[in-house]
Specification:
By secondary structure, the chain is mainly alpha-helical. The protein has a single domain, classed as Winged helix-like DNA-binding domain superfamily/Winged helix DNA-binding domain (Arc Repressor Mutant, subunit A). The protein contains three helices and three strands; from the N terminus they run βββααα. A three-stranded antiparallel β-sheet has the order 1-2-3. A hairpin with a 2-residue loop joins β1 and β2. The termini are far apart.
C-alpha cells in the first residue's frame, strides 16, 4: 500500500515498516543515516546504490508529515 509519495507499506516486507517503494529499504534506515551526518550522495554511494536522491527526499517529507501531525501533551 502506498502511504506517501515513493513510500509503501506491506506487512510481508520489512516487517510492515514504511519503506522506499519497490525496494526493501526502510525509511528509518535512511533517516538514521541522515541523522548520523551522511549526505544523500554518500548514502547512495556507500549503502543503497539502487535508490535515488528523490527517494531520500521522500523519506524526509514522510517523516516531516508525521511530526507535523503529531500532538504532544505536556505532563
Amino acid at each position: 500500500m502506498k502511504i506517501a509519495e515513493r513510500i509503501e507499506v506491506d506487512p510481508n516486507i520489512c516487517h510492515g515498516k514504511p519503506r522506499i517503494a519497490g525496494t526493501r529499504v526502510p525509511v528509518h534506515m535512511v533517516l538514521g543515516l541522515l541523522a548520523s551526518g551522511l549526505s544523500p550522495e554518500e548514502i547512495i554511494r556507500d549503502y543503497y546504490d539502487h535508490i535515488t536522491k528523490e527517494d531520500i527526499l521522500a523519506c524526509i517529507r514522510y517523516a516531516q508529515a508525521l511530526v507535523e501531525e503529531e500532538e504532544v501533551h505536556a505532563v
